[in-house]
DNA sequence: ACCTGAACACCGTTCAAGT
DNA sequence: ACCTGAACACCGTTCAAGT
């Protein structure tokens, strides 16, 4: 009730996605319902289905939109360590901007059509790092799960809890330690 | 309708949790509804609420139940590398047994009251590995997110996709590479 | 104590109808 | 083409009532 279904403009997909993302950021993916979204847009719930196939499709749309903002490091001569670091930080910054959505992305991998560009870039960096070809696929996947696992934990708020007698530690510092550990591991395998 | 609400035995919490877990394993957390669970137990939906506060509380119960099965490596003299490896594999094997539930656990960390025992064991191993005290908390968290990130990706089915020209790679091998990489990274920091 | 039926306030989505 | 209202088949949960 109380959906005053009158508006001037004609309702675009962009508008729908943007509003959905705003609602997700504000209250989590679970708090987004087609009916509430419609109310927010001052539109009948069923109008949405004229622009979007289903709620799942809408979420997919929003996920892709956000994932597109990932800034991949260019293939200039930058040393592999710096490129790997840059990629890790870029990935993390996207998730930090929309933690609730990222929680959803991770547990619904089909929501993101695979970003082959990301894999290609990671591959290139690992080749530069001297990872032997037979271990390339494994290493690529391992690294991706490491970084996404960290970022995911951060989104879920696991990393912020109190520490032992050392007091609360800074999550930024933890991420740096994490990235350093990965780079050290990769460097060790390289003579 | 059609819930033939007659049964002999008196419905226990264990029975509820076990059935819930079975349904989650079969169809994912999303497919579990209080009403379907009640139907499966041949009971009125409202009877469940006499044993459980809410659906969230029920899921929490099930998560704790499963998490309790984690086999932590004992504090014998085993070298830290072996202990760390054992912990990683133990953690993974739990998730592998109930992937859908684990997907939920990860995105709802409040569903698992923190397993301080796990943290303690990990701490002990890292001390044995020679991680300096000021980096202990960071390293512990980084490692945890690495392993849980890997396991999570495996649960979500991200790691099974086709690889480049090398054909499909074995996920077990990838996990081994991942653990090796972590151990190499830790070893590098140790003189 | 333990269980139940009816009810409330929500969902996503279909479908026929309106402009 | 674009939007709408009513309706269907679901949810989780409350509450008063039954044994």
Summarize the helices and strands and which ones pair or pack.
Two copies of one chain form a homodimer.
Chain A: H1 13-27, H2 34-41, H3 55-67, H4 80-97, H5 99-107, H6 116-128, H7 136-156, H8 171-188
The structure holds a DNA duplex (19 and 19 nucleotides).
Overview of this structure, please?
The structure is a homodimer of 191-residue chains. The first copy, chain A, has 191 residues and is mainly alpha-helical. Helices cover 60% and strands 0% of the residues of chain A. Chain A has eight helices and no strands. Chain A is elongated and about 60 Å long. The relative contact order of chain A is 0.11. At the A-B interface, α5, α7 and α8 of A face α5, α7 and α8 of B. Chain B binds a DNA duplex (19 and 19 nucleotides) through loops.
Key attributes of the depicted protein:
homodimer; 191 residues; mainly alpha; elongated; disordered N terminus; DNA-binding; transcription cis-regulatory region binding (chains A, B); transcription (chains A, B); MT1864/Rv1816-like_C (chains A, B)
